[in-house]
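Input chain follows. Return structure tokens only.
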Amino acid sequence: MHSKNSGEIKRTRYLFSGTVQGVGFRPSVYRLAVKNRLNGFVQNIPEGVVAEVEGPPAFVDAFGADIRREHPPLARITNIECTDLEIRHDQNFQIIPSDAKGHADVHITPDSATCPDCLQELFDPANRRFRYPFINCTNCGPRLTIINAIPYDRANTSMACFPLCRECLVEYENPDDRRFHAEPNACPVCGPRLTLLNAKGKPVETADPVKTAIDLLFTGHVLAVKGLGGFHLSVDAGSIEAVKKLRSRKYREEKPLAIMVRNIDQAMKIACVSPEEEILLTTPQRPIVLLKKIQNDLISEFVAPNVSNLGIMLPYTPLHHLLLKDRLTALVMTSANRVDEPICTGNREAIERLQGIADYYLTHNRDIRVRCDDSITFVADKQPRLMRRSRGYVPQPIRIKHNYPCVLALGGQLKTTHCILKGRFAFFSPHIGDMETPQARDFFQESLTLMKRVTKSDSLVIACDLHPAYYSTEAARTLPAERVIQVQHHHAHIVSCMAENQIDGDVIGLAMDGTGYGTDGNAWGGEFLIANETRFQRFGHLQYLVLPGGEKAIREPWRIAASLLKTAYGTSWKETARQLKLIPDETQMDLFDKIIESKIHSPLSSGLGRLFDGVAALIGLRSQVSFEGQAAMELETLATGSWESPYPFELLHKTDQSFILDMSAALRAIVVDLESGESKEKIAASFHQTLINAFATMMDEMRKVTGLTRVALSGGCFQNKILLEGTIDKLRFSGFDVYCHRQVPTNDGGIALGQAVIAASMIKKGF
């Protein structure tokens, strides 16, 4: 017992902010306080977690060091405030009831993969949760996806209808137990249960739904499996017929399918796995990781045809571990939806929407409250990078440099996400997707409600894209707001990169993607910008090309190739197109020439993505595509592992002092290579190297004019690993400081952050 002489003891108040509720933080504080023989209390409050500890100064200091080092795995401390207080002479240390008064400022925890302790119990025949598909604890399990309301208490989740049995209640109330206040805590006696349904939604008689589901998968059936944030459509990834059946039913002809493998050893049998990729695969977030294929007989070639990567993830729920434990090596696990629709979450919804696709449904009676797709990642320049930020990552906020006024940003038209700025944090919605269907637009509205609930904010300033016809732009006009700020697409890309890297002021920006509405009314996408948080200047861009037939040209890239040839060869382009057998119906050549010449229903584009499409068609790789980015992905696949000399290009200096990157010389050189019988692999590699050199040349020009040395890379084209790593290396070698995306997608899934920061900066500066 401590002496009551206040000179020999001290009392310190710690306020912990961040993700500190619902993650076992209070019991962790309790155990460390008891370990250091301190008295006082710990409590949840709207601002986070407060702890007051009293004891010898050395012990109080030791506690402070311990909590920084030993906090629970799902906790994320963003700030610690320490204040010395008067001695109160407490007699013990307690966890006291939460104070729910005031304005909540607590970060909700993302869903987390099954932890090693729960996994060990899952396969322990002596444990009361042996093979229980909903085993979890404070360190793992569902979080965001079961929330109805804030605060995150069991009564506000979809676990409210499962009263705890006596044994689970004892765990829940014991600070020394790792299930203390684990809101989804359950067991076979009191918790959710699995049900196997047939194609009509009728229960299948079985004593073991998991075993029967494995038998069905093993014999080639398509199963809809209920996960954390929605259903997956699943088949045996090693079965050619099963994969082809799933593709046929889902009308997904060639787009790669994600797979789930039993463990890291199995992943290494089908793909190259670097140390950085292994870490990413095994994090609690358990994202899909794009990994380079290796030759194997375990995975059907129809899982990811004509591309070099496989999208691989490890099991992240107890049910996944049970399904993959023995017989099945890998399962296709693709989002359960129809084209351009959001992932299914409800049992009845899945049965209705997946009719004709799924043979059976492995479902359960714990409701999914928040729709949340799998996250997608890759490693480039030895850094993990997000292509889709969703399950496992949201709603964990991103810390930004400045304290901004509250802004809601609505994103774009494709890969849509929302972002809310609140203080020094940016909160992202789960991935919403493309705004092409009524169901996707319903999800858009659903996501707005979620974001306001999670952040406890209702911004009256809304940021959106400049494009007048985007659904997000239309939605901005209908929402209650004091001000709507429209932001140019590529400016948003660059500021998004700046914000996540916590830099401000003027930078050189490379915004490279397929399309975005430009201030001149044309489609932009190969942009060299001078940008800051409020303004941008278009220093240069890829030469405009005509898109014959508009959207049709994106689906039929031979049209873009023809347009590129006309730009490169002028009136003699038709002869070259005939030699390359580029146009399917050569009798229409003259008509097609007039369409390009007069730009009938044929807009202008400076998009790098369109240039990739055109070159892929030019070399005979892909004249039509079945999904966005297909031609570019296959062009990158051809170039992988090759290093070739670049083609020529020109920088044209316009009278308004801007620059045009003209690739006509490169296109003519590609035609020469094709006519001489050069390999497509060599041409693809040279094309990539040409772009890298062209970017570096333009950056040198921009540095001469502006004196700037900081470069921000953004846009969907930088998902191309060859282009990204090559550009980073080239610019660093030339003395530039290069900033790239890691925490938010470089594609349109990240632009909401840029929109929000631009709008908030404008308000802050009085614009």
